[in-house]
UniProtKB/TrEMBL annotation:
Domain CinA C-terminal as annotated: residue spans: 9-161
Organism: Thalassospira profundimaris
Pfam families with a match to the protein in the record: CinA
Designated name of the protein: Damage-inducible protein CinA
Classification via InterPro entries: CinA-like_C, CinA_C
Length: 164
């Protein structure tokens, strides 16, 4: 179900979080739970994964993790501002997490525009007493490739946050 290279990266991240005593929460849109699912596919993940929010709709982003309707209407769901609000909202609502990552993007094949093309993904990563990181990238390939690249980049951002 989950590609071996994703499970290998998830395993390394689980080990790093475990060694540092950190717990993760996720706020996922375009990946639909793949980040959390990949992490929980690894033995020992229960000591590291607190919870995951799958917030595919704008209503879920607002109701579950507190993204303001103003941000959603002014910038759109696929934006740096919303990615930041998603990770910060997830961190605030996760009972045990010390780090939260968020992803919001356009995995395709449709849904893109001139200003927000297919493959565009915005990321956020927040941690207690750490500066929130935002990042965006336009990934190439089909829907599977975009979502896979998104999961791997989310793992990288969490790892970077652990080093802060």
């Amino acid at each position: 179900m989950i590609d071996d290279d994703i499970l290998k990266a998830a395993s390394a991240l689980i080990a790093k979080c475990s060694a540092k005593g950190e717990m993760i929460a996720t706020a996922e849109s375009c990946t639909g739970g793949l980040i959390t699912g990949s992490l929980t596919g690894v033995d020992g993940s229960s000591s590291v994964v607190d919870c995951g929010f799958v917030t595919y709709s704008n209503e879920a982003k607002h109701d579950l993790i507190g993204v303001s309707n103003d941000l959603l209407s002014n910038y759109g769901a696929v934006s740096e501002q919303v990615a930041r609000a998603m990770c910060e909202g997830a961190l605030e609502r996760a009972p045990n997490a010390s780090i939260a990552v968020s992803v919001t993007g356009i995995a395709g094949p449709g849904g893109g525009s001139a200003t927000k093309p297919v493959g565009l993904v915005h990321f956020g990563c927040a941690g207690h007493e750490r500066q929130t990181i935002t990042y965006h990238e336009v990934f190439a390939g089909d829907r599977h490739a975009v979502r896979k690249a998104t999961v791997l980049k989310a793992f990288e951002l969490i790892s970077d946050m652990l080093d802060q």
